[in-house]
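Our consortium's second objective concerns turning raw sequence data into structural hypotheses that experimental partners can test. To show how far this objective has progressed, the report includes one record in full. It was chosen at random from the queue rather than selected for favorable results. The single chain below, 319 residues long, was entered without modification.
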Amino acid sequence: MAVIGNIDSRDLSQFFYSILFIFLAYLLTFLGLSLIQEGKITIAGVQVISALFINVFLILLAYPIIPLLERLFGFTSTSLLLELSSTNRPLIKKLIVEAPGTWQHSLQVANIAEAAATAIGADALLVKVGALYHDIGKTVNPEYFIENQKGYNAHQTLSSLQSAEKIIAHVHEGVKLAKKYRLPQVIIDFIETHHGTTKVEFFYRKYKEEHPEELVDEQQFRYPGIKPFTKEQTILMVADSLEAASKTLKDPTMEDINQLIDRIIHGKITGGQFAQAEFTFQELEICRTVFQQSLYSIHHARVEYPKEIELKQEPTELE
């Protein structure tokens, strides 16, 4: 009963219902055996039922023991994930204070990824918490990321290669911070996989323009991370790229957003980023629909009427 009850520790009422069902299972089993063996309920049987009730009551001790068991056996419960999602956590506070633009980006990514995970039956809470922490490495040098810049661009004094190195380093720095603050490995995995082995496209193209005669080593502009290997990590990778790239759209229509989503997903597939992910094309299509709805809502996308003539700027994904 404890196993099939699928207890969600986020819902205390469900926890108590599960205790009740366990007691009923105890009671029915004992009554059945007693009637088979004795043909009736004896005084000793009443005492056993009382003992079973006390036994079930002691199940309440399981809740405060969960954190201890997590540390002993290395698993992550919903209780811990809820705790990690609090803005009172030291690392979240650090992100909010030192890189507020990145924090806003992380919140948007968390909302988009959570909705997609819910739609395909993945772990929505896990991907939400992973999204909140995926860019914590940007707190080391927040000024090198566009969402934290206020007028001055720190990349002006760097070469394209140096800029790419600064951008790429946030994954490694994020892993270091996560280990320092003792985040569970399941969250560290999100940090390591959210860019996979993609390129820092903007500075890669800029470097090629600046050195047209040089044979460019792509590896210098690639993230050395791990490709996503779970559904939740795959969702986060796409949601992260979509949220960042969608900010380059100026007054987008639904068609603009649809084209952006198709281009980003196609780029991830052709780049082999989904090669290790447990993801089906059906799930990808469901997520695509959720991504569309989320970005429509964020950007208040509108239908472009025939009489309306506007110049559209082609969006570019900036990693």
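The partners drew two points from this record. Residues 228 and 274 are 7 Å apart (CA to CA). The mean pLDDT is 87. Both points have been shared with the crystallography group to help prioritize constructs.
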